[in-house]
Amino acid sequence: MTTKKILIVDDEPHIRLLLGQTLEDLEDEGVELLTATNGEEALATIKAEKPQLVFLDVMMPKMNGFDVCNAVKNEFGLKGVYIIMLTAKGQEFDKQKGTDSGADLYMTKPFDPDEIVEKSMEILGL
Length: 126
Prior knowledge:
Layout: E1 4-9, H1 13-23, E2 31-36, H2 39-49, E3 53-57, H3 65-75, E4 82-87, H4 92-100, E5 105-108, H5 113-124
Parallel strand pairs: 1-2, 1-3, 3-4, 4-5
Helix pairs in contact: 2-3
């Protein structure tokens, strides 16, 4: 059985920490939590680790979330990676851009921790 992995990508340390704490109970289920601090790092981690689930911030240095998502979904064609865009920008335009780049789901900050855990368990089949 392969280890299930979740990648948390955000340039804000407190958001990474918050998401990590929100999801830490899943580690008891054998889930490995990975983090990246910008888009380039995220892309490298996704290619190397092949996480099943990625929580991806939109506004980041080096490469934004839309570009990362587009690269994963459309350039590398990594079908087994479920991408949830996390952003403070909840406008329809942004959601459409997220959908266009291949995001599977779009959540706005501040997020509901219970919803994050619930969605993660559903996606990972726990």
